[in-house]
Design goal:
By secondary structure, this protein is an alpha/beta fold. 35% of the residues lie in helices and 30% in strands. The protein contains ten helices and 13 strands. Strand 6, helix 5 (164-177) and strand 7 form a beta-alpha-beta unit. The longest helix is centred in the last third of the chain and has 15 residues, at 264-278. It starts with a strand and ends with a helix. It binds adenosine-5'-triphosphate.
C-alpha cells in the first residue's frame, strides 16, 4: 500500500534547480534509502516532504489526504544537524517536545519515559544534553521525531557524523523502529543502505535515476564475479584468464583477481579445467556477485 506519492516534484533555488521532475512512491511499512552524492538534492526532497520547504512545482500526496495538504502531523523529521537545547536534560527536552506537539504534561511525561527506554538512553535521562555522545544525541533526536507517533519517519544522514559505535547504535535503533513505521532516510554510505533498507531511491544532480526494491535493483545491475587468489606472481594469469570464453574482464585488487564473467558456473568450470591442466597455484576461488557499490557506480555513470 502506498503511504506517500510524489509526482513531478521540482525545486528551484534562484537560477539553480536542485530537484528535477522527481516522481516516486513510498510503500507503507518499508525502510527506504535515498541515496546520492553530495548536492544530489536529498535534503531538499526531505525538507519538501516534511513541509519545511515549498515545492516549485509538483505534488506530494499522503494516503488519506488531498495533494499538497498539510501532512506535518503524520511526519517525524530529524535534520542532518539537529538543534537541541543543550542545557536541558534529555528527559526535559522530550517533555518539552511532546508539549509542543500538544500533548498534556502527563502524556508528554509518559511518552518521554517510554521513548527514552525505547531509544536506549533512559539511564542518561537526567544528564544534560551537552554531555551526550553523538550517538546518544542522534537517539534523542529520533525520540523527539517520533513523540507524536508519525506514520513516516524521515532521517537526514542519521549516521554520517557518528563514530563506529554511535553508527552501530543508531542503525540498530532504526532496525527496531522499522518494524512499526515507514522510514525514509538519506545517506551516501552504501553499506548502511544495504544493511537496513528494503527499497532504494537513487538520485543524481536532482534527477531520480533509479528506484525500487533493493533485490530487484541488484538483479538488474549486478554482475557475476569470480575472485581468485594465487601464490606467486598473479600477473602471469591475468591474460590467460581473459582468453577463457566466459571471462569479460579481470582486475587485480591487492593481489586478488576480480574476474567479471558472463555465467558464473561455466566460468568456474573453465577456470578449474585450465588451472588443473597448467597446475596453477590457486589458494582460493570464490564465486560472488558485484556489490551495492558497483550497482551505485553503474547507475551514477549510466
Ligand atoms: N537554500 C539554498 N539556496 C540555494 N541553493 C541551495 C539551497 N539549498 C541547497 N541548495 C543547492 O541545491 C543542491 C541540492 O542540495 P541538497 O542539500 O538538497 O543536496 P544533498 O543531496 O542533501 O547534499 P549533501 O549530501 O551534501 O547533504 C545543491 O547544489 C545545493 O548547493
Amino acid at each position: 500500500m502506498t503511504l506517500l506519492a510524489v509526482k513531478d516534484l521540482t525545486k528551484t533555488y534562484g537560477s539553480h534547480t536542485a530537484v528535477k521532475h522527481v516522481s516516486f512512491e513510498l510503500t507503507k511499512g518499508k525502510c527506504i534509502a535515498l541515496l546520492g552524492p553530495n548536492g544530489a538534492g536529498k535534503t531538499t526532497i526531505l525538507r519538501m516532504l516534511a513541509g519545511l520547504l515549498a515545492p516549485s512545482t509538483g505534488s506530494i500526496t499522503f494516503s488519506g489526504y488531498k495533494p499538497n495538504q498539510d501532512i506535518r502531523k503524520e511526519i517525524g523529521y530529524l535534520p542532518q544537524y539537529p538543534a537541541f537545547h543543550s542545557w536541558m536534560t534529555g528527559r526535559e527536552f522530550l517533555i518539552y517536545s511532546g508539549q509542543l506537539h500538544s500533548l498534556s504534561k502527563k502524556e508528554a511525561l509518559e511518552k518521554a519515559d517510554l521513548l527514552l527506554k525505547k531509544t536506549g538512553i533512559y539511564e542518561a535521562r537526567h544528564k544534560r544534553i551537552h554531555t551526550y555522545s553523538g550517538g546518544m544525541k542522534q537517539r534523542l533526536g529520533i525520540a523527539q521525531a517520533i513523540i507524536h507517533q508519525p506514520k513516516l519517519l524521515m532521517l537526514d544522514e542519521p549516521v554520517s557524523s557518528l563514530d563506529p559505535i554511535g553508527r552501530r547504535d543508531v542503525l540498530t535503533l532504526m532496525e527496531e523502529l522499522k518494524e512499526n513505521m515507514t522510514i525514509l532516510f538519506s545517506t551516501h554510505i552504501l553499506s548502511d543502505a544495504d544493511e537496513i533498507s528494503d527499497e532504494l531511491l537513487l538520485l543524481k544532480q536532482g534527477h531520480l535515476l533509479e528506484s525500487g526494491p533493493i533485490n530487484d535493483l541488484r538483479k538488474k545491475y549486478q554482475t557475476a564475479m569470480i575472485e581468485l587468489q594465487f601464490t606467486g606472481d598473479i600477473a602471469l594469469y591475468e591474460q590467460k584468464l581473459l582468453e577463457l570464453p566466459s571471462v569479460t574482464n579481470v582486475i587485480n585488487k591487492r593481489d586478488v583477481l576480480h574476474i567479471s564473467v558472463t555465467d558464473v558456473e561455466q566460468a568456474r568450470d573453465e577456470v578449474i579445467q585450465k588451472a588443473a591442466l597448467e597446475l596453477w597455484p590457486i589458494t582460493q576461488l570464490t564465486m560472488n556477485h558485484s556489490t551495492l557499490e558497483d550497482l551505485f557506480m553503474k547507475v551514477m555513470t549510466k
